[in-house]
Each structure stands twice: as C-alpha cells, then as structure tokens.
Amino acid sequence: MRSSHFLDRWTLSIGHWLIHGETMLSQEKLKENALTSIRLGVEDFQRASRAATDGGDPERAISAARNLFAGLLLLFKYGLAAKVTKAEEIDLVLFNPPKQIVPHPDGSGGVQWRPVGKFAKQTIDVDGIKSRFEAFGIEVDWDAMRQLQDERNNLEHLHPTKSIGAIAGFVAETFPIVQQFVVEELEEVPADFLGPCWRIMLEHRAFFEGRLQECLAAWRASSLPSGMLPYLASIRCGECGSPLLAPSQDDDGEYTCVACGESSPLMSELMEAVVEAEAGSYDPYDGDEPPLRDCPNCSESLFVVADGECRWCGYELEDWECVVCGEALGLDDQHNSGLCGFHAYQRDKDD
Ligand SMILES: [Zn+2]
Ligand SMILES: [Zn+2]
Ligand SMILES: [Zn+2]
Q: What is the domain range of residue 248?
C-alpha cells in the first residue's frame, strides 16, 4: 500500500536521523524525575499548609503547584516512553519533529522523506501529550487536566499568602488524575509506585471532598435558587483562594470561607460567574446580542437569551416561536400572543 510505504520510509528516516543526532531520554530517568517532582510538590504543599509557628511557609504554595503539575506531565511522558520498546524511539514520541519533511534522492532513482532541521529542544507540552495519547489509546480526563492547568496558572498570579486555600483545591484535584493514570495506564499499585506521597494525597483528597460536599449540601438547603448552584464552582475565596465556601449562618446572601473564615457578599460574585459562563463567543463588535438580559419576572440581569430562561427565578419564555411562520421569538416578542413582529403587525393591520 502506498500510504503505509510512505509512513515506513518516513519513520525509518526519522529513526535514522535521531540515532545520528540527539541525546536520548531514558524511561528510568523519566520515572525518577516524575516521582521526585511529585514528592517535592507534596512536601511544598505540606510546608505551605502548616502554621507559621510550626515552620509553615505560604510562599511554598506556588512551587507546590509547579512541582505537582510538572510531575504529572513527567508521569505522562514516562507512560508514553513505556509504550515503546526500542530505546531510540523514546525521543521520537517525546520531542516535536521538525515542521518540514522533504523528499531527498535515495541515490538509486527513488526518494526518501527526511525531516529538515532539528527536533525541538524541549519535549512535548500538554497538547503534544494529548495528541500522542490519542494515537496510543491512553486515556486521561482532559477536562480535569485543563482545569488543573488553569488553576496552576491562576496560582501563579495570586499573592503567595492568598493561595493557601487554592493549593488545597489543586492538590485534591490532582489526586484522581494521578491515581487513575498509575492504576489504569501504568498498571502499578499507587502506594508502592508513589511511596508515602500517595497516602498524603489520598487523605487530603478525602478530607477536601468531604468539606466540599458539606458546602454543597448547605447551599442546597439555603435560599439560593437551584439554577445558581452550578456557578458556585467558579467562585473562590478572595482571601485564600479556596473553593470551600458555604452560605453564612443567617443565610443573608453572604458566604463564608470554610478554609480561612473570610465572609463576602455572594451576589456580585455569582453575577460575574454567570456572565463569564454564558458570554462564550459573544462579541458585541460583531453585532451579537448580549447573552444576558434583565428578567421580566425577578428583574435580576440573569435571563439567559440562548436558553430562554432566567437562572435566578426560573422564568421561561412563554412563546418560543411564531405560530404563523415558526420564527424564534425572544423576550421582546412575548406581548404579541405568539406572533413574530411581522405577523403581529399584519394582524393589527387587518383588524
Ligand atoms: Zn478563604
Ligand atoms: Zn428571573
Ligand atoms: Zn411570524
């Protein structure tokens, strides 16, 4: 077959090129680096969480996130390296090839495809790992990974003393990804493979999840409309960055941070979360309609145009489409008894 012939040639050429080129990464080295990075991350996390009187150092929160995230990526790379049997092919899967592949004469009237330039000096990033995992059939919860990557980037921008709560959430979210990968893809026993780190992360995750579920239960029992519950997930304590927020005792529209005790008004934060979530690709300069409008029922600016529903009070459009022509109706057509602007005009003219 033509295509497989092409691929064989291509692979051979790169393999040939690599053998004569770069230094090689070894599987063992990757594993060692991954485990060291995760261990340092867990140690940083412990130092960051301890009280100052007990040798605690909040500045370690950021390096905890950096080390853990780097450790996770190294673990993934180790997983990829473990999939290839030839040592010289490890570099093939872990480095980005040169962008240009050009046919060269093979000396006997044929051609050989060869990369022009060098393999990238740095190993593949998150996107590179993802595309290779897809090719190798390795599964990872990429939504959770993206969220983790965002959290890590957010942590970089937080003041160190305001990141203690955030790093607790970060470690709790890292755990299931590491656990799943070690068990499912590496087929290792996590307690053996990760050493004491594993138990520390496991216990922290269990503790954190417990608190998170308590917070959610308290919100469900509060006066907050149920349509708003999903948006709580994007709110963080302004003081410590923790996602562990519960309604204040007297249910007065404030929230209290379970991690540091700070209280803040809820509504403006929730509004921001809804606006951000619904805005999507909204571009006012492109003539787009704003994604949110004032609700005619409760007058909060939480009527989601795309869904025809208010997030706060649950008010829904009564007339969805024109009974004559089927055109979609919006908030402004609701007084026309089920007709679009044009057909309402026609009716009034005929009367
Ligand atoms: Zn807090
Ligand atoms: Zn409403
Ligand atoms: Zn119509």
A: 223-289
Q: Which ligand minimizes its atom distance to the CA of 343? A: 3
Residue ranges with CB less than 5 Å from ion ligand 1:
165, 237, 239-240, 242, 257, 259-260, 262
Give 232 Cα–ligand 3 centroid separation in angstroms.
39
> Using one digit for the tens of pLDDT, what is the confidence trace for 250-267?
888 899 999 999 999 888
Q: Ligand 1 centre and the CA of 255: distance in Å?
A: 10
Helix, strand, coil percent content, the chain, rounded in steps of 5: 55, 10, 35
Burial class (CB in 10 A: 0-12, 13-18, 19+), 3: exposed
Looking at the fold, whether 75 and 182 belong to one and the same domain comes out as: yes
- Mapped onto helix, strand or coil, the DSSP state of residue 292 is strand
**Which ligand has the shortest distance to the CA of 337?**
3
Cβ proximity of 272 and 235 under 8 Å? no
Which-ligand-closest: CA of 292?
2
Q: In the chain, pLDDT over 70 holds for what percent of residues? A: 92
Tell whether 57 and 168 lie within a shared domain.
Answer: yes
> Which ligand sits closest to the CA of 259?
1
Question: Are 11 and 117 found together in one domain?
Answer: yes
Across the range 241-248, mean pLDDT stands at 94
Q: Which is higher by pLDDT, 308 or 96?
A: 308
- The ligand that comes nearest to the alpha carbon of residue 323 is 3
